[in-house]
Amino acid sequence: MTLTDTYTLNNGEKIPVVGFGTWQTPDGDVAEKSVIAALKAGYRHIDTAAVYKNEASVGRGIANSGVAREDIYVTTKVWNDNTTYDETLVAIDESLAKLGLDYVDLFLIHWPNPAPIREIIGYEKRNADVWRALEAGVAAGKIKSIGVSNFRPHHIDALLKTAKIAPVVNQLYVNPSDQQEEVVAYNKAHNILTQAYSPLGTGEVLTVPALVEIAEKYGKSPAQVALKWSLQKGYLPLPKSVTPTRIIENGELFDFELSVEDIATIDTLHGATRMTSDPDQTNF
Fold first, then answer.
1. What is the pTM assigned to this prediction?
2. Where are the extended beta strands (E) located within the chain?
3. Strands annotated E in 95-238
4. Is 85:132 a contact under the CB 8 Å cutoff?
5. pLDDT tens digit string along 97-143?
6. What is the C-alpha to C-alpha distance for residues 211 and 22, in angstroms, rounded to an integer?
7. Residue bearing the bigger pLDDT, 1 or 140
């Protein structure tokens, strides 16, 4: 397996097994140069979002990387302020314009239950309308695949009542400290790929003694062990960094395998550091 190996999604499309995340990456030269560094290091999967406010810089990084567009898998996301069909159609075109692309490979609903519309529209109608617009984007050739992020089973169950296209992925805060077992099991049962954003727990899990001990045994960094755990679980991790050496290191995951015993030990780390937000209780 390498950075260019792929999972096959439930619609038959291929997606590289590791992605390069750009959450919290500043707009401008930092974002552009980090994307170029990632593509130079062999990544072929770049993840951004409208709310990251760096789509234009990510797009410049892609354009200036020297890697052909068709060889790069690009993901972006619809933010919470898009609550209707028409607003989402506009958001799709805005993201494409900022990225400088004719299409994106994957478009996600970023959060399932935006706070401003909970008592007005409700998540079920909002997500159905936004999803219908994403489906229109697929029909128009602007999007290849569509999926969700931070969705719990009840959100997906509601979405599937009206969806004509099933979600291909559910992007979650998943790492050794927050394993979201119920959601991951639901994803698997519905042939939805689990993507792991913050697979290093925003860096907090890297100091957990048990993980450090396992890393020392393999001669690897705690980050590499956490990412390998994600891969061996069948997830798609999205590590992020703006440091070229760490970008390279985070992609060097294919010359070792964690033992069954070490996977089991890492599984016991649930709750070792912070947990994700409840998407039905967030204030955004």
1. 0.97
2. 6-8, 14-16, 20-21, 45-47, 73-78, 104-109, 143-149, 169-173, 193-197, 236-238
3. 104-109, 143-149, 169-173, 193-197, 236-238
4. yes
5. 999 999 999 999 999 999 999 999 999 999 999 999 999 999 999 99
6. 25
7. 140
Phi-psi region of 114 (alpha: psi -120 to 50; beta: other; left: phi over 0): beta
pLDDT of the residue at 275 = 93
Q: Which active-site residues does the annotation give?
A: 52
What pLDDT sits at residue 247? 98
Residue with tokens 């550091």: 273
Burial profile 27-53: b = 16 or more Cβ within 10 angstroms, e = fewer: eeeebbbbbbbbbebbbbbbbbbbbbe
Per DSSP, 148 falls in state E
Q: Name the residue among 223, 226, 175 with its Cα closest to residue 201.
A: 175
Distance, CA of 220 to chain centre = 24
Helix (H), strand (E) at residue 136: helix 123-139
- Kindly state the average pLDDT of the residues 153-177: 98
Instruction: Count the neighbouring beta carbons within 10 Å of the beta carbon of residue 173.
Output: 20
pLDDT band, residue 187 (cuts 50/70/90): very high
Q: What CA–CA distance (Å, rounded) separates 50 from 182? A: 28
For CA atoms 17, 18, 24, 26, the dihedral sign is negative
Q: From CA 7, how far away is CA 133, in angstroms rounded?
A: 26
Contact 185, 178 (CB under 8 A): no
Under 8 Å between Cβ of 109 and 149: yes
Sign of CA dihedral 147, 149, 151, 155: negative
Query: What sign has the CA pseudo-torsion 240, 243, 246, 252?
Result: positive
What average pLDDT does the chain have?
97
